[in-house]
Design goal:
This protein is an alpha+beta fold. It is built from 13 helices and eight strands. The protein has two domains: about 150 residues, no CATH class; about 200 residues, Alpha-Beta Plaits (2-Layer Sandwich), CATH 3.30.70.
C-alpha cells in the first residue's frame, strides 16, 4: 500500500506539471480563436465562414501557445534577450503565413473573392488583404500573450475567482505555506556582485518553478532571495504536496548543478519551513491591486524557517502540520522538541523532514 500511494503521488505530480503547461497553451489557442472570430464579425465576414475560421485558427493558436510558453523561455535561457526576441519575432512569420493561407482556403471553399465585405465600387486589393490579416494576427497575438502573462501570475482557478469578484471582502481560508530561502546569500552577493547575483537568484526561481507547478502550489510572493508557496489545505495535504514541493526543488537544482558551477561557481542551497492554518485573504490597493493573506500562520512559518540554521536542518515543519499529514511512508520525521519562536507566546513543536529514498526509487 505505501508503494501504491507513492506511485499515485508521483503520477499526480507528473500530470499536474504538464496540466499547467497544457492549460496555458490551450488558453492561448482559445483566446487567439476568440479574437479571430471577433475581428471576422467586425469585418462582416459571412456567418457560414466562422466555423471554418475557428478550425483554421485553433491549431495556429496552439502553435502560438507553444512559441510563447515553451520555445521563447528556452531561447531566453540560451541566448541574450535581444537575440531571443528576434528569434521569437521570426517565429511569428510562419504562423502569419499559415493564417493567411487559411483565410485564402476558407474563401476559396466558400466561393468568395475574399472573406470580408469591401465598400461598394472598390475591388479587392491584395495589399490590403495581406495588411488586414497581419493586423488581425498581431491583435490576436497581443491579447493571447496578455492572457499568458495573467496565467503566469496566478493559477487558472485563482484568475477565475478574481474575475468573478471574489476577495473584494476579506475571506477566511485554511491554507498551508512553504517559505523557501537561499542560504549564504550575503556571501554569494559579495562574491558574485549585484548583477551576477541577481541572475543567480533569477535562475534559481526559474529552475524550482516546475516543482511548485507539479505540487499544485501557487507562488504567493518573491521576497528578495525567498519564495513563498501556498496551497489550500486540501490541495497541499493531498499526496503531501507541501513536502514533495521542497524535495522536488532539491532534485531540480541538483540536475542543474553543472550549469550553476559553470556560470557562477556556486550551486544554490536552500532551507525551508512549512506550517498551516486559517488566514484571511483579501484584495488590497487601488493604484496597484494585490491579493494578500493575513494571519499569524505566515509569521509562524517564517519563524520556523528561520530555525533551520540553529537546528542544523534544511526542512522544518510544525507538529500541527505533521498531525494533519497523517501517515507518510515516503518521509522520515525527526521530532526536535518545543522551541520558542520570536514573537510567539509559548513553544512550538518542530520536526525535521527527510525523504526515504528507497521508496522513491
Amino acid at each position: 500500500m505505501p508503494h501504491l500511494n507513492a506511485s499515485a503521488a508521483r503520477s499526480a505530480r507528473f500530470w499536474a506539471a504538464r496540466r499547467h503547461l497544457l492549460q496555458t497553451i490551450g488558453s492561448v489557442g482559445a483566446v487567439f480563436v476568440g479574437v479571430l472570430l471577433a475581428m471576422a464579425l467586425l469585418l462582416w465576414v459571412p456567418g457560414r465562414a466562422l466555423l471554418p475560421l475557428a478550425l483554421v485558427g485553433l491549431p495556429i493558436g496552439w502553435a502560438l501557445g507553444v512559441l510563447e510558453a515553451v520555445v521563447f523561455p528556452a531561447l531566453v535561457q540560451r541566448f541574450s534577450l535581444r537575440v531571443a526576441s528576434l528569434l521569437k519575432f521570426l517565429g511569428h512569420f510562419p504562423l502569419l503565413g499559415l493564417l493567411y493561407g487559411g483565410f485564402e482556403l476558407v474563401a476559396q471553399r466558400l466561393n468568395l473573392p475574399q472573406l470580408w465585405t469591401v465598400p461598394a465600387g472598390q475591388t479587392p486589393s491584395l495589399v490590403l488583404h495581406v495588411l488586414r490579416v497581419a493586423i488581425i494576427y498581431q491583435l490576436a497575438v497581443f491579447i493571447a500573450s496578455l492572457m499568458r502573462q495573467l496565467l503566469q501570475r496566478m493559477s487558472g482557478r485563482r484568475l477565475r475567482e478574481l474575475l468573478q469578484g471574489r476577495y473584494q471582502q476579506p475571506e477566511a481560508e485554511d491554507r498551508l505555506f512553504l517559505f523557501v530561502d537561499l542560504k549564504d546569500s550575503t556571501r554569494l552577493a559579495e562574491a558574485l556582485g549585484n548583477e551576477r547575483y541577481s541572475r543567480f537568484v533569477r535562475d534559481f526561481f526559474r529552475d524550482v518553478s516546475p516543482a511548485i507547478t507539479a505540487s499544485r502550489g501557487e507562488v504567493y510572493q518573491y521576497v528578495g532571495d525567498e519564495v513563498v508557496v501556498t496551497w489550500l489545505s486540501g490541495v497541499g495535504l493531498r499526496y503531501a504536496n507541501c513536502l514533495h514541493c521542497f524535495f522536488e526543488m532539491q532534485r531540480l537544482i541538483e540536475e542543474r548543478r553543472a550549469y550553476y558551477q559553470r556560470e557562477y561557481d556556486a550551486v544554490p542551497t536552500f532551507k525551508a519551513g512549512a506550517h498551516g492554518g486559517l488566514v484571511t485573504t483579501v484584495l488590497v490597493g487601488t493604484a496597484h491591486r494585490e491579493l494578500v493573506h493575513h494571519g499569524d500562520v505566515l509569521n509562524t512559518t517564517a519563524r520556523i524557517q528561520a530555525q533551520c540554521n540553529a537546528l542544523g536542518s534544511r526542512f522544518l515543519i510544525s507538529a500541527a502540520l505533521r498531525e494533519q499529514l497523517g501517515l507518510q511512508p515516503e518521509f522520515h520525521f525527526t521530532p526536535l522538541g518545543g522551541h520558542n519562536l520570536r514573537g510567539k507566546i509559548g513553544s512550538t513543536e518542530l520536526l525535521d523532514v527527510q525523504e526515504y529514498l528507497p521508496i522513491l526509487a
